[in-house]
Structure formats: structure tokens, C-alpha cells
Amino acid sequence: MDALRQEGIKTLNDILSCDLDLLPKIKGSSIETLRRAQTQAKSLVNDEIIKISNPIIPEAQTKIYFDIEGDPLLGVEYLFGFLVVKPDSEPVFKYFLAENPESERKMWNDFLDWIKTENFNNVKIYHYHNYEKTQLNKLSKKYGGCDQLNHFIDNLVDLLKITMDSFIFPVYFYSIKDIAKYLNFKWQHEKAGGAQSIFWYEKWLETNDRSVLQDIINYNEDDVRATEFMHKWLISYNAEKN
Prior knowledge:
By secondary structure, the chain is an alpha/beta fold. It has helices at about 1-5, 10-15, 30-45, 105-115, 130-145, 145-155, 160-165, 175-180, 195-205, 210-240, and strands at about 50, 60-70, 75-85, 90-95, 125, 155-160, 165-170. The chain has 2 domains: about 1-50, no CATH class; about 55-240, Ribonuclease H-like superfamily/Ribonuclease H (Nucleotidyltransferase, domain 5, 2-Layer Sandwich). The protein is globular and about 55 Å long.
């Protein structure tokens, strides 16, 4: 931030050692923002996780971990992935796929048919960041929704918001990749990432190589399992520290 550099704060150690109360008002930054930046610097310098509040995590009997893959250049959401965790049964990975952009409507309708048959009376749907909620609302306007979809959306839980409200991590970015990898979760593919998924999808459209399509599905499954991993970590860390 240029305003901080003008005050001589150029490194993590600089912001860590400065007295924020003596700084002049920094344009565009509140004292709360600066205190978080200072705590973030401490976390990075010491390579430690800092708890700033107790996470409030809505729980339910059935837990669903949800992740969407989309290509903004093509204007298509091409994969909905879910890890469904019910009591006394093994987790089940389920997905809905648009094998080409023209199939997005069919994927959406297949998803709606599925939620119409599921009992979501005691369920929470965990995702990471607001992308999933945004795209559900967008596709609902585009193709139509249903009462069950409204109930589904009402039960979404954004684990990124909970994470950022409760912890400071020694990372520069708070994506699921950065956080879960710091906590030693491993993706199957070394190039795993949202941009790589888009590359694979466009390569699939060009080549019809189903092994590339499987890479996309495997990556999405890792993403929902990483979301479950993050949820469990939040619960266990909170329990250990209380």
C-alpha cells in the first residue's frame, strides 16, 4: 500500500514493530484494517495461526460440501460437485456435468431434480467463498428455480467468511488452496487450481479426450473434500483451544 510506504512501512517487520496509534490517518484504511494487517504480519513472520475469535459454525445432521467449476470466458458453469455426508454412512461424491456449454441448462435441471428428491430438513451445505451462492442465484434467474432451491440456498454456509472472522493464517491469500495446503491437505494433481480446471475444460472441448474430463472431475472432488477437511479443522481447532 503506497500510503504505508510513505510512512516508512515497507516490510512485514516494519508494520509489526510500528505503533499504529501514532500513525497519521491512512487514506482508505481504518484502524481495524491496520490492526488486522499487523496481526497478519505477525502470523507470517512467526509462521503461526492466530485465533481472533471463536468460530460460529452452523451444524446439521447431514452435511454437503459444494463446489462449482465455471469458465468465465465461455460464460458457462460446467460442473457442480457435492460430497454428501450422512450419519452412519460413507461420504458420497456426486456431480453434475455440462460436457459442453450448450448442456448447462440440462446440468442445471438435473441438479434441480436431485434436490427435489432429497430431504434437506436437517442439512447444511458448506462451500468456500461466495461463488457458489452467486452462481446459484444467477442460474436460477437464467433457467428457473424451485422452492427446494430456495431452501438449499438458505442453508449455505460460507467457510471462508467463518475462517477470516476467526483466524489469521500465515499465508498471503485465503483461497481454499492456500489454506488447506498450509494445513497439509493434498490435491491429487500437482497443477490443481481453478485456472487449470478451465484450461482442462477448454482442452476437453477441443479434443474430446475423456481423460482430461476425468481430471476436471477428480479436481472438483478434491475441492469438496478440501472443504470438508477445512470444516473439520475449524471444529477441532476450536475445541482444542477452548
